[in-house]
Amino acid sequence: MRMAVQSASSKTSGCRRAPVGIMNPVAVVNDTVTLWRPTGPEELALVEASGWREWPPRLPGQPIFYPVLNEEYAAKIARDWNVPHSGAGYVTRFNVLRSFLDQYEVHQVGGKTILEYWIPAEDLPALNASIVGTIEVTAEYH
């Protein structure tokens, strides 16, 4: 199986879509992919206000939405970045239709397990429409 993993050190032009026929290294359950996202209290409050169904629009200067492919990486960001910057960090888990994610490459931004999708802000409504179930908090750090 070939995988579409884009190294952060390789030359890229932003968020590139995955070539057709290339598999992504993600956990797939019944046509959905489980993703995680570290977040702070402000973003989490907006997710809660949506009924735990969608991510809020990106803020100006935030052109990319970065869900990650494993809980350990999300926990590291929540603990090491969100807590110092906002007093709390949360790890969330959500399932997305694989058919939506198939158009994006997975980017390796560090070690073998430091993997994330780069979803352009303008595609966030389509990502939200592709979430199956609700967004769940799996860990909390203070």
First and last CA, distance: 40 Å
- What overall geometry do the principal axes of the alpha carbons give? globular
Q: Structural class, from secondary structure content? A: alpha+beta
Total number of β-strand segments? 9
CATH architecture: Alpha-Beta Barrel
Kindly state the percentage of residues in helix. Answer: 10-25%
Topology:
Blueprint: E1 5-7, E2 28-29, E3 32-39, H1 41-49, E4 64-65, H2 71-86, E5 89-97, H3 98-101, E6 106-108, E7 115-117, E8 119-120, H4 124-129, E9 131-141
Parallel strand pairs: 1-6
Antiparallel strand pairs: 2-3, 3-5, 4-8, 5-9, 6-7
What does this protein structure show overall?
By secondary structure, the protein is an alpha+beta fold. It has one domain (23-141): ADP-ribosylation fold (Alpha-Beta Barrel). Helix content is 25%, strand content 30%. The protein has helices spanning 41-49, 71-86, 98-101, 124-129; strands at 5-7, 28-29, 32-39, 64-65, 89-97, 106-108, 115-117, 119-120, 131-141. The strands form three sheets. It has a four-stranded antiparallel β-sheet with strand order 2-3-5-9. A hairpin with a 2-residue loop joins strand 2 (28-29) and strand 3. Mean pLDDT is 85; it is low at 1-24.
Give a concise summary:
The protein has 142 residues and is an alpha+beta fold.
List the keywords:
single chain; 142 residues; alpha+beta; ADP-ribosylation fold; four-stranded antiparallel sheet; three-stranded mixed sheet; 4 helices; 9 strands; 25% helix; 30% strand; globular
